[in-house]
Amino acid sequence: MKSSFFFRGLFTALSIVFASAQDDPDTGEHPDWPRWCGKVYQAGYPSFEPGGHTVAPPTNDSTFLHVQFKPRYSLYLSTESKASFVVNAALSPWHGEEYVNSTSDGRSSAEPFTELVFSINLVDDDTPLVQNRIAINTTGAEFEFELAGLEPKLTSYEVVLFGASVYGDHNYTATSELLYLPDNPEGSATKIDNVKGGLLFKNAQTGHEFVPLLPYGYYGLYNGSNDTAASDEFVRDYTSGGTGLNAIVSLAGFADTNPVYDSMDQQGLHFMFDLRGSYKNLTETEQRVNTIKHHTSLFAYWTADEPDGWQVPFDKTPAAQSLIHALDPYHPVAITLNCQDYYFGAYASGGDILMEDVYPIGINSTFSKWGTACNATLGDCGCDNCAGVVQDVSSRLDDLATYEARLGRWPLPKFHNPQVFHGEDYWFRDPTAAEARAMNALAFNRGATGIFGWTWPGSRALFEVHSRMAGVVTRAPVVDFLLGGKPGPLAVEGFEIVDAACWIRGDRMMVSVVHGGYDDIQDSVSVPLPVSATGVESVVFGGLAWQLLGGQLVIDELPAMSTSFIILNIEVAT
After folding, report:
1. Alpha helix (H) residue ranges in 37-156
2. What's residue 103's pLDDT?
3. N or C end of the chain: which has fewer CB within 10 A?
4. What structural domains does the chain harbor?
């Protein structure tokens, strides 16, 4: 929630006046009532069920085969010779076509239906790109193919998967798109890894090669004039001291020719371009995208800021996303969602990257400044349906993953927007340094692959905290783990307040451990490991004395609100 008290009050005052002009996405009876995330938040209005929940689809106790596929990466360039598709053939209680666990050749008795034979073809001329088979209930299977027969173009190739049982008596289809673009050596390009959820970025400074990018920074407010020296100083201050802050969401106003973007290009600061004030006006969006798209440090666009909270009409974000893709297919589009679950499916459909802005620290989670209680159907306490603890971050990311699964969607990359502020009579203090580190680590434990704090300039103390953490997580070896695969959860028996996850790469494993409580744990804490480890290579973050004992990570006591990243050597089967 990024609106100021003034703008929220203005929204309330004008909502009744302009109710007839508002295109309310909720079909409830009272669009003129002051609502946030669908809930009435001011005193004097009755509460009601806001609707918009992403519930599990109904099931008739059948099992379905949910066939999905996507290119491994969101785009390929003409400088690349090979690409691949990732295929899922998952059994689902909700999505796909009914799965019949038998097949027959018409002559012999029924046999188990254990494999899907498939072909992935171009829709235009039926050219096969991949022909193979996949075991039933397999996900993430990757199949490579040659790009040589395709012509690079600025629009996507439509592709279709035809799948069948061995004898052809059960058939399944799925569709997707393949983006194979001409190279743009004068600009930049960003790929989304559709398996691991991270980004890869290339421009002249990367030698025109795609390199992993974990963007870590702030929403940065630049109010300078069109002065090159001031722009250069702004960027230097932001990246001063050799910090790991490598990216910014540029709140540089609407002067697209602002020299601050040239300074970002020259100093190698990746930026996400802010379109939140113009994305509803497609003419204005087109003008801004065409002005900015050639910058070499541009890595993404940001359109909607909390459209679910503001109840923006459903069609606005997909329309902006579609236009931006047409104008600049080299960069993805991000949106920020605020609500726990208010028409998630509709609002998330307009983004290639989902950002959540859970701000739980220093709130009154039960009663609001508006004179109402905060619960599932009423009130606005600054963090939708939050408990006011660091674990609200991990809970929200868990929720988003659940909604995607219920909707049968391919998971999008998730970025966390950490709280680095207080005020507005919602947030009575800044997070502490320990809380800031814990919330970020909890986001990483749930697969987040980007961090942007709201906003800078702000607390210098928190700026230094985030700068130091960024210096670890955006560089090897930690970034290789965070972008190298999905985290696996680790259950710490006896200590529910301790959250742990691991990433495995080759003969090494990184374990992240977050103690999210405010009291020291004065007993020994043991973290079980999913594979056999031979030793602790290093504690790369947190400075605690972790040991490997009896096949588990062990520490004699765990300080309150502590965060650790530990790298271990592991045994690899030969």
Report:
1. none
2. 59
3. C
4. 64-181 (2.60.40.3880), 189-482 (3.20.20.70), 488-570 (2.60.40.1180)
